[in-house]
Amino acid sequence: MQNSDNASEMRLFTPDGDRLYLTAEERRRFLDASALESPSNRMFCHVLHYSGCRPSEALAMTPRRVMINDSTIMIHSLKKYKTDQQSGLKQAQFRSIPVPSSLIEHLDLVFGLRSQLRRDFVIDVPLWSMSLPTAYRLIKRVMDRAGIVGAQATDKGLRHGFAVALVTANPPVPLHVINQLMGHRDSKTTEIYLQVLSE
């Protein structure tokens, strides 16, 4: 499962016309199927569902990046950097994603976020210690349990499904906001989600 945000490579349908994104029903089934996982694994699935982040970005999350009072999570945009004008070095970029308060509370219950935030020495330790291949296997296992099969049954299909839900909402979320939430470098990448409207 490889991720890429190159607009020329991004697409929502295979050459045969098969979907590469999860529908609202499939996203709901993915969440339901995650209930049989351990609390930690279940929270990983929920973060992917509610934030649209990449698995690698979720694995980089630390207690410091969960804004408990604001019901937002800060995601390190691993494919998006800003060049510092002074040094010329690339600086890390973060994006703030609003999530349900219930997700924040469940993260707190599973990981003890409030107590960790009182102990400065652990707040930069990632919430999950699993490797990226293990995360991919987790996603595939939950997809299989949910009966989601086909080209869309991937981590990227889950991420695409998040963006499709935003662009097809009533009212739809503006493209520039979706661009920020997804962490795309190029607005052309975000525009691929308009293909769903034409379908």
From TrEMBL:
Tell me the keywords, alphabetical order.
Answer: DNA integration, DNA recombination
Task: Describe the location of the Tyr recombinase domain by residue ranges.
Answer: 17-199
Q: Kindly give the Pfam families that the UniProt entry links to this protein.
A: Phage_integrase (PF00589)
Q: Which InterPro entries match?
A: DNA_brk_join_enz (IPR011010), Integrase-like_cat_sf (IPR013762), Integrase_catalytic (IPR002104), Tyrosine_recombinase_XerCD (IPR050090)
PANTHER family, from UniProt?
Answer: PHAGE INTEGRASE-RELATED, PROPHAGE INTEGRASE INTD-RELATED
Query: Which named protein is this?
Result: Tyrosine-type recombinase/integrase
